[in-house]
Amino acid sequence: MVVDPDPAEQQSLSILLSRLHSGATIVCFSDPLMAVKFGANNPVDALYAVTVMRRLDGFALGKMLRGFQPKIQLHFIADDETGRRDAMRILADSCIVRPVTAESIRRAETEEW
């Protein structure tokens, strides 16, 4: 699941994930509350969400989805290192500081931090 209110960033991340995980079904949302509704009713393996959004930030979204899907991987996209520290506090699986590349996604998914 990709959650980013910016359509261009959302599409870019979706394309990168499709290339890295061929065969995976990737759903995208610009509204985090719609992502919560989807996650409450459908299996989700991983969340890739920006940390700063209106209505519901990425961290709150991740916590809510983990309530429905305890094994979900949480990967956040942040604009700076502050976001990385916050992601570590909520026990996220990773936090990628922009710009997001295929290599930064691959590293985030495989390395312990």
Task: Describe it.
By secondary structure, this protein is an alpha/beta fold. It has one domain (2-110): Rossmann fold (3-Layer(aba) Sandwich). 47% of the residues lie in helices and 17% in strands. The chain has 5 helices and 5 strands, in the order E-H-E-H-E-H-E-H-E-H. Strands 2-1-3-4-5 form a 5-stranded parallel beta sheet, with helices on both faces. It is globular, with a radius of gyration of 13 Å. The mean pLDDT is 94.
CATH topology: Rossmann fold
Q: How many strands in all?
A: 5
User: Which value, in Å, is the CA radius of gyration?
Assistant: 13 Å
Helix content: 40-55%
Instruction: Going across the biggest sheet, name each strand in turn.
Output: 2-1-3-4-5
Q: Average pLDDT across residues?
A: 94
**Through-space gap between termini:** 22 Å
How many domains? The number is 1
Keywords:
alpha/beta; 5 strands; five-stranded parallel sheet; Rossmann fold; 113 residues
The gist of it:
Helix content is about 45%, strand content about 15%.
Would you spell out the secondary-structure blueprint of this structure?
Blueprint (H helix, E strand, L loop, with lengths): L1 E2 L3 H14 L7 E2 L2 H10 L4 E5 L7 H11 L4 E6 L2 H9 L4 E4 L4 H9 L3
Helix pairs in contact: 2-3
